[in-house]
Amino acid sequence: MLADLSIKAFLTETASKSPVPGGGSVAALSAALAASLAEMVANLSVGRKGFINSQAEMEALQERAQALRVQLAEYIQWDADAYHQVMAAHGLPGGSPEEKQRRSKAIQAGLKQAARVPLEVAVHSLEILELAQTAVTQGNPNAVTDAAVGTMLARTAGLAALYNVKINLSSIRDKEFVENTAEEIQRLETEIVAREKRILAAIKL
Question: How far apart are CA 135 and CA 45, in angstroms?
């Protein structure tokens, strides 16, 4: 599992000639780190006397950010697995018409999966931005810059993941799938960028 590698080993593997882990896995890692920072702010706020009025919000933030952190760590591997699925489909025999049809279906199924995984990362990244906003506005102000870094990471993770969706869409033949996914991409891009701007604008240093 890629998430089980040490930081140095992951960096080395990413820098190698191997196509995975690539941008999709790194986007998932960035989102997981963003969730970790939101969770950290919650941990630095829960139980502190100065944040009695926001205890419920911080506890909810702590719980959800932890769940996202754990889940997104899985997406690091899932993105790589989706790539391997596409490559395996390309390697299927295509001599006879039946084999060609089977190979084409397998490739298209793999491409859809390769689009779904980063799309889910982008959806989670938007949710992390919502958590980051709570961290900034109601969390420990001594950790506000950590929340800001998490905000910027979540934005980058979301937009990076969407780039990976787009490149797979260009090869998918299912028009309905492509149109629906393209609409979701546009919605997510708009919301992610707008949310980051609102959060960072609220931070006064």
Answer: 9
